[in-house]
Design goal:
single chain; 101 residues; alpha+beta; 3-stranded antiparallel sheet; two-stranded antiparallel sheet; 40% helix; 19% strand; elongated
Length: 101
């Protein structure tokens, strides 16, 4: 059974604190490259607004999002956000008629 704070003795807790202090004192402040790059990519991704490309394919409106987008497309008029909520797009009837011509 793994030890938790509730099951540690005072001596074991003190040892863990001392161990943590020793490890922190030896850390030179460097981070692994993969951690840095992953964090950087996450920050950069948040700076860019999501992109939705609207195209005409054989007279039909098609919505597309890049693979890394926080949005996904369902059907020809619904975007699914990261949290699962939906954004439904309504197209003016005149636009849809103009597309079909």
């Amino acid at each position: 059974m793994p030890k938790t704070l509730d099951t540690l003795t005072n001596e074991e807790f003190d040892q863990l604190v001392e161990q943590h202090i020793d490890q922190a004192a030896q850390w030179d402040g460097t981070l692994p490259l993969d951690t840095i790059l992953e964090t950087w990519a996450t920050i950069e991704h948040r700076k860019q607004p999501p992109v939705v490309r609207i195209r005409l394919v054989e007279g039909q409106i098609v919505l597309e999002t890049p693979p890394e987008s926080p949005l996904s497309v369902q059907g020809s008029s619904t975007l699914i956000l990261e949290d699962g909520s939906e954004l439904n797009l309504e197209f003016e009837p005149e636009l849809l008629e103009a597309v079909r011509i």
